[in-house]
C-alpha cells in the first residue's frame, strides 16, 4: 500500500513564537518521510517566522495569519479562510487548539482529517516529543528530534563577509544572547559582561552579542562593562541572517529563548542558562549542548513567571561567570564534547 495514498495536501497550524515553530521541524520532517508526495503548508503568526521556512524543502508554502494586523478585521479573516479553502487539504494538524480563530481557519479544510495537539499533563516531556506525539494516529513514531533551519545562500554570504576578519585569527567565536521574552529567563548584564571578559582574557575569544531590537540597550550596556570589545549585532539581523551568523560560531550562550533554538537548528552548540523554565520541556535538543543550572536552589525549576524565592532571581544570580566559563571551556576543549 502506498503510504502517500489519500494525503495530497497537509496543513499545519502553529501561529507561535520562534522557538515554537522551529520545534515543529521534526514533525514536518516526519510527515514528509511518511508522505513524500504530499504538499505541506504551514500557517504561522508572522512574516518573520515564515522566513524560517523559506529554504525548508519539505514546506511548499507558508501562510501568515497576522491576528493583530492584517487579519484583525472580519473581512480580512474571511479572505484568509477562503484562500485556505481553495487548497482542499486532506489533513490538518492544529497545534493551537485553545485558539478559536485557529479552529475557524481549520474549518476551511472540511471535510478532512483533523489531528489536534494536546500538551502533556502529569508528566514532563520535551515540547518536540510532545509535538511528535500528535502524529501517533498516523503510525508515525519518530525518534529524530533535531531541529532544522537553512539560512540560505544570501544570509550565509552576508555572515561570511561580516565575520571574515574575526574568524581569521582561528580563535573561538562565541555568541552571547542576553535578552529573553521574560525577565525571569535573563542572566544579568554584569554577569554576561564578566563572562565576555574572561573568555577574551583566557581564550582570546571573539565575542558577538545578538538579539532583537529590544536588546540593543542591553547589548550596549554589556559592551561598556567588558574588555572584550564585542561585535554588537542586536537589532541588526533578520532571522535568516541570525541563523547564518550563529552557524559560523563555535558556541552560543543564551537563556531559554528563540535564538537558542535557532542555534541548535543550524548545528551550533548551546550553553543554555536555565532558571525558572524546565530544560526537560524547552531545553536545547541535539548533540553537544549543555544545560547550566544553579546548584542548591530548591525551587529550580519553578515553571512560573513570578519569582517567589527568598532572594529574587536567586536561580540566575547563583550562576557565576566563572562557573559558566568552566562549562564553555569543557565544551570547546573536551574531546567528548566536540561535534
Can you put this structure into words, describing what you see?
The structure is a single chain. It contains 14 helices and 11 strands. The longest helix is centred in the middle third of the chain and has 15 residues, at 153-167. It has helices at residues 18-22, 25-34, 47-51, 74-85, 100-106, 127-133, 153-167, 189-203, 216-224, 239-248, 258-265, 279-282, 314-317, 321-333; strands spanning 9-13, 39-44, 61-64, 91-94, 113-116, 173-177, 206-209, 231-232, 251-255, 270-274, 290-293. It has 2 domains: 9-138, 3-Layer(aba) Sandwich (Rossmann fold), CATH 3.40.50; 155-337, Rossmann fold (3-Layer(aba) Sandwich), CATH 3.40.50.2000. Helices cover 37% and strands 14% of the residues. By secondary structure, the chain is α/β, with parallel strands linked by helices. Helix 9 links the parallel strand 7 and strand 8 (231-232). The strands form 2 sheets. It has a 6-stranded parallel β-sheet.
Amino acid at each position: 500500500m502506498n503510504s502517500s495514498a489519500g494525503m495530497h495536501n497537509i496543513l499545519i497550524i502553529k501561529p507561535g513564537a520562534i522557538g515554537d515553530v522551529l520545534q515543529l521541524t521534526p514533525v514536518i520532517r516526519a510527515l514528509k518521510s511518511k508522505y513524500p508526495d504530499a504538499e505541506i503548508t504551514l500557517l504561522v503568526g508572522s512574516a518573520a517566522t515564515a522566513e524560517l521556512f523559506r529554504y525548508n524543502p519539505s514546506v511548499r508554502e507558508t501562510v501568515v495569519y497576522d491576528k493583530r494586523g492584517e487579519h484583525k478585521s472580519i473581512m480580512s479573516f474571511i479572505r484568509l479562510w477562503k484562500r485556505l479553502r481553495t487548497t482542499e487539504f486532506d489533513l490538518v494538524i492544529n497545534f493551537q487548539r485553545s485558539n478559536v480563530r485557529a479552529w475557524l481557519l481549520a474549518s476551511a479544510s472540511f471535510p478532512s482529517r483533523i489531528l489536534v495537539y494536546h500538551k502533556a499533563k502529569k508528566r514532563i516531556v520535551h515540547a518536540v516529543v510532545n509535538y511528535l506525539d500528535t502524529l501517533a494516529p498516523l503510525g508515525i513514531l519518530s525518534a529524530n528530534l533535531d531541529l532544522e533551519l537553512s539560512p540560505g545562500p544570501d544570509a550565509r554570504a552576508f555572515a561570511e563577509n561580516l565575520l571574515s576578519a574575526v574568524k581569521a585569527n582561528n580563535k573561538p567565536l562565541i555568541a552571547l544572547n542576553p535578552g529573553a521574552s521574560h525577565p525571569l529567563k535573563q542572566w544579568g548584564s554584569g554577569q554576561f559582561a564578566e563572562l565576555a571578559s574572561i573568555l577574551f582574557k583566557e581564550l582570546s575569544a571573539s565575542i558577538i552579542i545578538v538579539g532583537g531590537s529590544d536588546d540593543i540597550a542591553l547589548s550596549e550596556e554589556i559592551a561598556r562593562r567588558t574588555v572584550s570589545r564585542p561585535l554588537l549585532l542586536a537589532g541588526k539581523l533578520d532571522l535568516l541572517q541570525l541563523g547564518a551568523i550563529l552557524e559560523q560560531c563555535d558556541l552560543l550562550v543564551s537563556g531559554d529563548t528563540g535564538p537558542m533554538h535557532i542555534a541548535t537548528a543550524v548545528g551550533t552548540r548551546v550553553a543554555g542558562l536555565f532558571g525558572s523554565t524546565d530544560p526537560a520541556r524547552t531545553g536545547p535538543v541535539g548533540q553537544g549542548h549543555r544545560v547550566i543550572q544553579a546548584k542548591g536552589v530548591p525551587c529550580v525549576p519553578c515553571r512560573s513567571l513570578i519569582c517567589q524565592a527568598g532572594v529574587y532571581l536567586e536561580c540566575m544570580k547563583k550562576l557565576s561567570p566563572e562557573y559558566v566559563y568552566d562549562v564553555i571551556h569543557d565544551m570547546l576543549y573536551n574531546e567528548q564534547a566536540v561535534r
